[in-house]
Design brief:
4 strands
Length: 175
Amino acid sequence: MKNEKLKIRGFTLIELLVVIGILGILAVGLLAAIDPFEQLKKGRDTNLRNVTVEYVNAVTRYYATHGTMPWGDAALNTTTLADNTVKTYTQKLIDEGELKPEFQDALGDNAAKIYLTGKAAPDPIQAIVCFDPDSRSLSADATTLYDSSGVEKEGCEADADIKTKVATVCYWCAR
């Protein structure tokens, strides 16, 4: 009877270490599949893409209402949204109700990452807003093949999974 009482059920140290090791390997595999840094980059790129589309739409609405671009009928050289001159155009869009009043403040540091180009006659009148994506998925997107002024650029052709960037930066643009 004494021997039966001494038998305690449980796991050995080796069994526990094996289970912890397997769980560790699964956790590393899961982190590699999720890639949290890539997810952060995708989030930033999505935010930048939404801002570029919103800005182009605001300029288009302004043009439809006023028959001229916020910067007039002349061409606008490529510059960032952080440029003081562009800030006046952005403020004009805000004053006209095409952008929300918080737009300028919400841009923050992203304003320096977004490029604006305005085309005028004889080219088709349009605004082109571009940014350089950080995430692999948007870099590999077929629409990410422009320079910062919205001109299609060689060396930006989409590979199977990753955009080839041969000594160049390829931008995603909204028109």
